[in-house]
Amino acid sequence: MQIGVIGLGRMGGNIVRRLMRDGHKTVVYDRAADVVSKLSDEGATGASSLSDLVSKLDTPRTVWVMLPAGEITEATITELSSLLSSDDVIIDGGNTFYKDDIRRAKSLREKGIHYVDVGTSGGVWGLERGYCMMIGGDKPVVERIDSVLKTLAPGIGTIERTPHREGFDARAEEGYLHCGPAGAGHFVKMVHNGIEYGIMQAYAEGFDILHNKNSPELPEDERFELNTTDIAEVWRRGSVISSWLLDLTAMSLAQHPTLDNFSGSVSDSGEGRWTINAAIEEAVPAPVLSAALYTRFRSREEHSFAEKMLSAMRFGFGGHVEQKG
Amino acid sequence: MQIGVIGLGRMGGNIVRRLMRDGHKTVVYDRAADVVSKLSDEGATGASSLSDLVSKLDTPRTVWVMLPAGEITEATITELSSLLSSDDVIIDGGNTFYKDDIRRAKSLREKGIHYVDVGTSGGVWGLERGYCMMIGGDKPVVERIDSVLKTLAPGIGTIERTPHREGFDARAEEGYLHCGPAGAGHFVKMVHNGIEYGIMQAYAEGFDILHNKNSPELPEDERFELNTTDIAEVWRRGSVISSWLLDLTAMSLAQHPTLDNFSGSVSDSGEGRWTINAAIEEAVPAPVLSAALYTRFRSREEHSFAEKMLSAMRFGFGGHVEQKG
Amino acid sequence: MQIGVIGLGRMGGNIVRRLMRDGHKTVVYDRAADVVSKLSDEGATGASSLSDLVSKLDTPRTVWVMLPAGEITEATITELSSLLSSDDVIIDGGNTFYKDDIRRAKSLREKGIHYVDVGTSGGVWGLERGYCMMIGGDKPVVERIDSVLKTLAPGIGTIERTPHREGFDARAEEGYLHCGPAGAGHFVKMVHNGIEYGIMQAYAEGFDILHNKNSPELPEDERFELNTTDIAEVWRRGSVISSWLLDLTAMSLAQHPTLDNFSGSVSDSGEGRWTINAAIEEAVPAPVLSAALYTRFRSREEHSFAEKMLSAMRFGFGGHVEQKG
Amino acid sequence: MQIGVIGLGRMGGNIVRRLMRDGHKTVVYDRAADVVSKLSDEGATGASSLSDLVSKLDTPRTVWVMLPAGEITEATITELSSLLSSDDVIIDGGNTFYKDDIRRAKSLREKGIHYVDVGTSGGVWGLERGYCMMIGGDKPVVERIDSVLKTLAPGIGTIERTPHREGFDARAEEGYLHCGPAGAGHFVKMVHNGIEYGIMQAYAEGFDILHNKNSPELPEDERFELNTTDIAEVWRRGSVISSWLLDLTAMSLAQHPTLDNFSGSVSDSGEGRWTINAAIEEAVPAPVLSAALYTRFRSREEHSFAEKMLSAMRFGFGGHVEQKG
C-alpha cells in the first residue's frame, strides 16, 4: 500500500527501506532535505513539506510519523491534522507517552481523523531483523494498515513456536500485536522498556559481583580472577538466563573485556520513568524496575546531597570524619 | 571415558543418559534401588553401594556426585573420600556453596584426591538441550574430564556466534567453561542464579503492571484490558527483551492466561541468598537482585510483623484504624 | 485575628479550638450541622453555608479550608473564590498536591485573591502539641496571617535549641516555616511524608528481624526469643535511633506486644506516591522511599500476578511445582 | 563495684570516667601508656599489662573489653581467658558479631568464665547522655554487674514515660536491657544499626528531593529554592519525623547549609552488613535496610562495572554512545 513517512532518522529511514523492499510505495519528508533526496534515490517519493507530502498521497491517506517523542511530534501532528481529511490515518511510531495518545486520539476523532500508536522495539537491528510492534487504535483502522505492519514485523522466522496458542492472536507470532485502543500500544512498549531496564540491571549487578570477586576486601583464598567475557559467552549456551541482551553483552565484552571504553554514566529515557509512575498509579510494587532506574540516576551524579547528609549525620553522632581533606 | 555417577534423580539420571548416548561408560548408584536398575536396563552398570561403585571403576577413577546440596552431598563426599585413592577425581555437580568447595578441595588435596565443582544450568531441559556448565578445579584435572564435559554441554548448535572471540576460551562457545580453581564453578553458577531471580522479577513486575492496567483505581478512560499471553508472544519476536525465560513465560501464559493454577507462593534456593551475601562481602550494590529475593520471602508470608508495625505507628500518630474487624 | 474555618473534622475542629484558646475569633462551617453547633457551643461563630461564613467575616477576609484533599477541596475553593473579594486570603490546610496549589494560586491571583498552602504535621496530637506547619505563598500574605500560624505552631517549648542558627528564619524554631511561593508548603509536607514512610519502614524491618530471630529456619543455638516491647523502650533512651515514631511504637508494643490487633494491611496516601514521582522528575534516586511505598502496596494484596509469574517460570525451567493443591 | 577496663579510646575512656563519677573503682589498661596515665590522673588505677590488670582486681573479677571489633578483641579475650579464673566475668562492649559471642561464651564456659556482650549506642555523646545498652549473657551474671550498667545507662531522665509498661522490664526505661543469652546483646545492637542506616537514608533521600527542587530539569514554574536548614529545624518541632538524627542533621545544616564540607563518600561498618545477612537467614524482606547499605557502597565508587555494562548493552541494541570522549 501507499504510505507517507515523516522523520527519516535512523529509525524512520530504515522503516522506509524495509517497506520499499516489500513493494510498498512511500512518500517521505524530513526537515533535512538531504535525507529526503537520499531516500528518493532509493525509490521513495520525496516531499518538500508536510503539505506537499499530504498532497502526494491518495485518500484515505496513511501517514507514519517517526520523530523523537515530545514537542516536535506534537507540533507535527497538530500541523498534519489541519492538512488531512476525514478518514485519514495518523500513525505515531515514536516513543510517545500513552496519555498523550489518548488525548490526541480523542481530539483527532472530532475531525474524523484516525490515530494509531505504534511502539517499536528492535533498535538499530530493525532493518535486518524486523521491528517488534505494539499497536493501539481502533480495530478497523489497525486492520486497514495491516499490510504495512506485516512488512515491518520480523515474521515467524526460525524462532520456535509456543505450544497451545490456538485461539490467540496469530499476529503476535509474526511480531506485531494490536494491544487495544489508542494509547495501548505505547503503554505496552513503555512497560517493555521498564522491563528492559530491570533485566539490564540484573545482568549488570551479577557481572559486577563476578568482576569484584578478586577484591582485596575478600580473604585471599576466596578470591577468583573471573573472565567475564567467557562467562557471558557460556551463559548464552543452554543456561536459564540466555537472552538477546546477553548476546549483546557477550559481543561487547569480546571487544572490550574491561568495558573501559564506557564512562559508566548511563542515560534514561521517559519510558523507564513512566513505567514507575504507572506502577504507582496501579499500586503495583515495582522494586526491581525502580532500582534499575535509580542506578542510572546515580550513575550520572558525582556525589549526591543525600550522601553528604549521611556523612553529616555520622559525624554528628559518632565523630566519624568524612569531610573533605 | 568411564565415569561413576552418584544420585540418579531427574538431573543425575538424565546426565547418565546423555553420557551413554555419546558412548561413555557409566557406573551408577542411588539409594533408591529401582532407579539404579532402570538405568542398568538402559545400559549403565549398576552399583549397590558407594564401595561397590568405587570397586567397579578403573583407576584413576572419576565420580560425579549429583545430589541435592547440603548434608547429603557432604556426607557422601566424606564417605567417598575414604574409599577413593590418590589421583581419583570427585566432581560435585550439585548446588554447593562455593566456600564449601574451597574447604573440601583443600581437605581432599591432602589425600591426593582431586575435586572439581560443576555448576549446571538448563534444568529439566538439559537432556535434550545439553547442560550449560561452569567448572572449578585444577587445570589438568578439568582437562582430564574434558570429554565428559563436552558431551554434557549443548555444543555450538545453531546459536549465532559472537564476533571477536579469537583468543578467548573456545569451550565457552560449546557451553562449558573452566572458570577457575575449586569453588569458582559454583560461584559463577550462584551468580547466574542471582541474575535469574532479577530477570524473572523484572518480567514479573512488568506483566503485573500490564495485568493491572484495568484497575478500578485508574480513571476510566486510562484503563486497558491487555492480553498478557499475546504480549509475551510478541515480545519474543524481535524485541530487546526476548529471552529463554520469556519463551517459558509465553508457554505458561498460553496454557493458563490467568496463572490461577499457581498459588503465588514462591520458593528460593540458597544461590539467591548467597549471591546477596557475596555482593555485601564485595561491597557491590545489588538492589535488583536483593529486591527479587525479598519478593519471594514476602510471597510466602501472610502478613509480616513489619506490616503490623506500620499500622501500629499509623494508628499512633494519625488515629488510622487498620485493626482487625 | 478573625478567621473562617471550613471543614471541622478531627483536624479542623482542633485547629479551631487551638485558635480560640489563644484568643482568635473563628467563624466555622461544615456540611455536618452538628459539628458546627458543637464548636459554636465552645465559642466559635457558626455559619450555615459558605456564603454565610463569608458574610460573617470582616474584609479583608481569611478563610482556612481544612478538608480531605481532592475533589471536595477543589469544589469548595472554586465556590469560595466566587464569594470572596480582592485581597481576601484562602488558606488550604489539607493534603493538596502541590501542582494543584500552583495552578490555583495562579488562577485566584487573576481575581486578586491570595492563596496560601499549609502542610501540617502532628496528626491527632496537634491540639495538645501544636502543629508543625510548612507554608507556601506570597511573603506579605504569609506575614499577614502570622499570628494565626504562631498560635497553631508548637512554639519553642522545651526542645533543645540548635546551635548556630543566627541568621536563619526564627519561625522554624517555633515550628512553622514559610517555605516559598504557593505550592512550596505542600511540597515540603509531601516530602515529609515520604521520609515518614521510609523511617517507619526502617523500624518495621528491623523489628521484623528481631521478631523472627526465633525462626525454626535458624540453627537452634542461634535463635533468641527477643522482647520487642522492651527493646523499643530501651532504644528510646540514649540510642541513636530515638524518635517520636519510636515513642509511638513503644506505646503500641506495650499495649499489644504481638501486634495481633492489627491486620497488617497498610494504607498509603497520595503524599508517598507523589514523593516518588517528584524524585523521578528530579532524577534523584529514592530507593528507600520507594521500597517503603511498595511494601504498603504489597501488604494489601493476596498474591500478585507477579508472584504467580515467578512460579510459572520456575515450573517452566525447573519443573518446580508451586501450583495450587 | 570494682571493674577492669581494657581499651581506653574515645568510648572506653568515657566509660571509665562515667563509672568513676558514680563511685566505681576502675583498673584500666591500654596499649598506649599515655592514656593509661591520663586516666590514672583522673582517679583510675593504671595497669601496665593484661596480667597486671588481672592481678589488681579482686576475685571474682569483672573485666570490660572496649576495643574495636575484630582481631584485636578476639586476641585480647583469648589472652585474658588464660589469666582469669573460674567465676570471673568478661564483658565485650565492642561491636562484635553476635555469632562470635555465641562461640566465645561456649568456649569460656568450659573454663568457668562468664561472658557478657554489651552493645552500646550513643556515640560520642555517651559520657554526657549515658549509653543505651543491649546486653546478652546469663541472668545471674548480668545481675551481678547491674550497678555498673545502671551507672552507664542514661536513666529515666526527662523523657516521657510510655504508658502500660507495668509488667515489663523496668531496666528498659533506665536505658539498658538484658536481651537474652550471650550474643543477644550484640544482635539487638546490630539490628539497631541496621535501622539507623535505614532512617538516615530516608532523611537523606527526602532532603535530596528538597535540594533538587530547583533542578533545571523541571518546568520553570514548578521549581522552588528551598532552605533545607530551616526545614530540618521546623521538622524538629511537632512533626511526625522528629528524632535525634534529625536534631543532628539540623545542627550540621545550620553550620554548613550546603554540606560541601563533606565529600559524600560514606563508610559502612559490619553491623549494617550483618543485619542484611540476618534478614536473609530469617527470610525477612529488608528492602529499605539493604538500599541504605547499597547507597553507601555506591558512594565510595567512581563508576561501577555494572554501570559500564548498562552502557555497553545500550550501545549494543540502540547505538547509544556513552563511550569515553
Protein topology:
4 copies of one chain form a homotetramer.
Chain A: E1 2-6, H1 10-21, E2 25-29, H2 33-41, E3 45-46, H3 50-55, E4 62-65, H4 71-83, E5 89-92, H5 98-109, E6 114-121, H6 126-129, E7 132-136, H7 139-144, H8 146-152, H9 171-174, E8 176-180, H10 184-211, H11 228-235, H12 244-255, H13 270-282, H14 287-299, H15 305-318
Parallel strand pairs in A: 1-2, 1-4, 2-3, 4-5, 5-6, 7-8
Antiparallel strand pairs in A: 6-7
Helix pairs in contact in A: 10-13, 10-14, 11-12
The helix-strand sequence of chain A is EHEHEHEHEHEHEHHHEHHHHHH
Q: Count every beta strand of chain A, where a strand is a DSSP E run of 2 or more residues.
A: 8
Label the overall shape of chain A: globular
How much helical structure, as a percent, in the residues of chain A? 40-55%
Strand order of the largest sheet of chain A: 3-2-1-4-5-6-7-8
Average pLDDT of chain A works out at 94
Distance between the termini of chain A: 69 Å
What is the CATH superfamily classification of the largest domain in chain A?
Answer: NAD(P)-binding Rossmann-like Domain
Task: Determine Rg of chain A (CA atoms, Å).
Answer: 24 Å
Give the quaternary arrangement of the chains: homotetramer
pLDDT < 50 runs, ≥5 residues of chain A: none
CATH topology of the largest domain in chain A: Rossmann fold
CATH class of the largest domain in chain A: Alpha Beta
- Count of structural domains of chain A: 2
